[in-house]
From TrEMBL:
Chief site of localization: cytoplasm
NCBIfam families linked to this entry: nadA, PRK09375.2-2, PRK09375.2-4
Protein name: Quinolinate synthase
Cofactor list: [4Fe-4S] cluster
Localisation: Cytoplasm
Keyword 4Fe-4S (UniProt): yes
Entry keyword set: 4Fe-4S, Cytoplasm, Iron, Iron-sulfur, Metal-binding, Pyridine nucleotide biosynthesis, Transferase
Positions annotated to bind iminosuccinate: H25, S42, Y121, M122, N123, S142, H238, P239, E240, T255
EC number of this enzyme: 2.5.1.72
Highest taxon in the source lineage: Bacteria
Pathway participation: Cofactor biosynthesis; NAD(+) biosynthesis; quinolinate from iminoaspartate: step 1/1
Catalyzed reactions: iminosuccinate + dihydroxyacetone phosphate = quinolinate + phosphate + 2 H2O + H(+)
Family of the protein in this entry: Belongs to the quinolinate synthase family. Type 3 subfamily.
Length: 350
């Protein structure tokens, strides 16, 4: 990366001192993540945002839904900045408030809404989290989805899981012992979600038809190929991958889990990793004593995570150092109130 920009980022950070706290998700570029005070998966970053009341400025190097959650969890005098407002998430965009409200009406018409506990993955907009908060549900991340499901099934007999069908299905089937037949997929683009009333009544897990465009591209063939190419390879994937991929893997977990597994792996071991490429490359560089390869050569970066680059970060830091807050993320008070209920429920999961 451009040494002059690196210098400017250091200078602006130094000028801001304790007034600034920089959070960085593991999928961020190397040129950006080097300036993070804390790095983490979505869960750890939510906890860290909540634990830093003293910093008036929080710069979030990640995507929009993460910055919204940070705004909800930080205090009223703290301002959260996303260096590029175009850093969204295609999965989060797959569930809109109106669609979710319509889905709930379908559940009411089927006479099952009272039995359903809604869970939304962190990767959703603040108004979806607020919807879930208003209906007594919880947020989850890839590191606590099982605990969220256990909690939900202690309160109701059915779960509506938004918006990532893969995380919902993988957790229900591979970690909770439910059958694939216990899951149905609600398609927001079809009347009544494309489901008959009987199907809804019989289902235990109602999965939203959403997915991650990055993880959705790994296939069972990717796993078969790498096993043929590298005998003894350990396949390690994120639970946003499709069920047929996750079922074939040796280890499954969040970005934080993936990092821990590779840190602890013995020298000489071989790993094929199914998650975003910035993280896999960084881990391969860090562990030159291990063979670490990307699970599929054709899958690449998360384009929206990559929108946060060094020029955008420098612009954010320098404007804050001048006392100007550019690209602030704010969630309105009413939405924040109910979304906070769902986020607090996640943070309180046993
Ligand atoms: P985690 O870091 O929580 O595993 O999330 C992965 C992800 O896709 C974030 O967008
Ligand atoms: Fe969204 Fe997938 Fe990118 Fe994560 S990796 S921000 S889920 S598109």
């Amino acid at each position: 990366s451009d040494p002059a920009l690196v210098e400017r980022a250091h200078a602006a950070k130094a000028a801001l001192g304790e007034r600034l706290f920089v959070l960085g998700h593991h999928y961020q570029r190397d040129e950006v993540i080097q300036f993070a005070d804390v790095t983490g998966d979505s869960f750890k970053l939510a906890q860290e945002a909540a634990a830093r009341p003293q910093a008036p400025y929080v710069v979030f190097c990640g995507v929009h839904f993460m910055a919204e959650s940070a705004d909800i969890l930080t205090g009223p005098d703290q301002r959260v900045v996303l260096p590029d407002l175009a850093a969204g998430c295609s999965m989060a965009d797959m569930a809109t408030y109106d669609q979710v409200e319509e889905c709930w009406e379908v559940l009411e018409d089927a006479g099952i809404a009272d039995d359903v506990v809604p869970i939304t993955y962190m990767n959703s907009s603040a108004d979806i989290k607020a919807f879930v908060g208003r209906h007594g549900g919880t947020v989850c991340t890839s590191s606590n989805a099982r605990r969220a499901l256990e909690w939900a099934f202690s309160k109701g007999s059915k779960v509506l899981f938004l918006p990532d069908q893969h995380l919902g299905r993988n957790t229900a089937v591979l970690e909770m012992g439910l059958g694939l037949d216990d899951c149905v997929v609600y398609n927001p683009h079809r009347p009544d979600g494309g489901l008959a009333t009987d199907e809804l009544r019989a289902a235990t897990m109602i999965l939203w038809r959403g997915h991650c465009s990055v993880h959705g591209r790994f296939s069972k063939e990717s796993v078969d190929d790498v096993r043929a190419r590298i005998p003894g390879v350990n396949v390690l994937v994120h639970p946003e991958c499709r069920h047929e991929v996750v079922r074939e893997a040796d280890h499954i977990g969040s970005t934080e889990y993936i990092i821990r597994m590779l840190d602890e792996a013995p020298a000489g071991s071989a790993w094929a990793v199914g998650t975003e490429l910035n993280l896999v490359k960084r881990l391969a560089d860090r562990h030159s004593d291990k063979t670490i390869v990307f699970l599929d050569k054709t899958v690449c970066f998360c384009s929206t995570m990559n929108r946060i680059d060094l020029p955008h970060l420098v612009r954010s830091l320098e404007s804050l150092a001048r006392g100007e807050v550019v690209n602030q993320i704010t969630v309105d008070e009413e939405t924040a109130h109910y979304a906070r209920a769902a986020l607090d429920q996640m943070l309180a999961l046993p």
